[in-house]
Each structure stands twice: as C-alpha cells, then as structure tokens.
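Risk register update: the risk of archive-format incompatibility is retired. Evidence:
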Amino acid sequence: MLIQLLGAYLSGLSYSIAFNVPKKYLFYTGLTALLGSWMYLLSKMFSLPYPILFGGMVIAAVSNIFARLLKTPVTLFLIPGVLPLVPGVSIYRWIASFIAGDVNSSTYHLMNTLQTAGGIALAFFLVDSVFRTRQWPGQKKEKADTD
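Archived output:
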C-alpha cells in the first residue's frame, strides 16, 4: 500500500511539473493525489464504483480546500489528483478485446471503464455542489439578481 501511495504522489507531482504548475503548489498537487488514492485503497472492500466515488470525493474536497486556502483555481489540484484513479488499463483492455473480437470481454471492460468514469464525475459533481452552495469564511456574499 505504501508503494501505491508513493506512486500516486509521484504521478500527481510529475503531471504538475510537466504542465508547469508553479513550484509553490507542487507539494499540494502530489498530496491531493496521495489522499485520493489512500481513500480509494481503504475502500477497496466495496464493489467497483464505491472506491472510485470515495476517492474522487476526497480529491474534489481537498482540491476545493487547497484552492480556497491558496487562492488558486480548483483545477490546479483536481486534475493532477485524479490521475491515479483514471481507468487507463481498463480502457486498454476494452480496446484490445474489441479488436480481438472477444465480445464478452470487451463488454465487461467497457462497463468497468464507464463505471469508473461515472464514479469520478459523480464524486466531483457532489462535492462541487456542496462547496458552491455553502458560504465560506472570507467569501463575499453574492447579490441576488433582481431583474
């Protein structure tokens, strides 16, 4: 588990370096990936969409918190953080079995890929909805439209 968490940290850090994230945020991008992967690994006892959902929720929450604390865009932490959860192997297996003509295996890997991607999207949506509807300390109140 420790090696997997180190790999998650390094993947978030490497992505951030490759895409020129400012140096003062590199630690936080790697930490976001590490925390999301940690939740994913802790919740592996559940069936497929739940570990991805829980890991994605942690990534989204930590990204929103870091963005507010450091006054940066959420995507600066969100994109590098989600890399360890992206279903790359499942997509590869789906395409490989599709090309080989194995319909059963192709269908299985396609469903696995869609569940994983859907879990990530749902997690981001749920957490973002909470952060958008709540008034946070130091945040200016928005005026209601009276048109």
